[in-house]
């Protein structure tokens, strides 16, 4: 997993996929009830896209702590936000953050919880660091058919058995009932789930697939690690899913599942 979130992946993530990630951040912030003056923890911050939006939401009187397990990703977040006085950064495992009890008003986790080896433990930690009345919110993939880049991971997994388990994890929390139960079991109340699913337009399939072919982001790194003779096979399988042989402009159906709960 670490190599998928190393320097090459971090460097290309925003160029290849950042514009799609940003589409879903406002819904996550609303679910976490962000407000001016709050202290916010962004778990698995990646390149800091959700942390950046959180800074704007909490304003100069608030503070955002951005954490990630992977140093290369956190370095990109630091490059994005390090000039701001009310943002701090820490290398941390989302399942075991070394943070004080009841020290945050809100906890966010954008597209990271499904990759935790033990998401239940992660949610318990989210609740531990929340103050009474604070909210935690997370977003995850729903299904292969409504994934942006991780649909490619599923295809890669069919050709590279060592990647299959990682690909499956991307969709492991896509059932709303299961995610709701995990939040409730962690002790959250007023648990809510909902989906958001805009279609993302591209001028062509090649325009969609180019960042992956260039090795950008975690999916691009997984693609680059394949034997060269498999690259075309994977590309054509994904092309068939998205354009059905018609060519021309395409729309990629993307849907995320959100869950939130109050401490």
UniProtKB/TrEMBL annotation:
Pfam families hit by this protein: Methyltransf_25
SUPFAM superfamilies the UniProt entry points to: S-adenosyl-L-methionine-dependent methyltransferases
Keywords (A to Z) from UniProt: Methyltransferase, Transferase
Source superkingdom: Bacteria
CDD domains reported for this sequence: AdoMet_MTases (cd02440)
GO process terms (BP): methylation
The Methyltransferase domain, residue ranges: 40-134
GO terms for MF: methyltransferase activity
PANTHER family: 2-METHOXY-6-POLYPRENYL-1,4-BENZOQUINOL METHYLASE, MITOCHONDRIAL, METHYLTRANSFERASE
Protein name: SAM-dependent methyltransferase
Species of origin: Microvirga aerophila
Source lineage: Bacteria, Pseudomonadati, Pseudomonadota, Alphaproteobacteria, Hyphomicrobiales
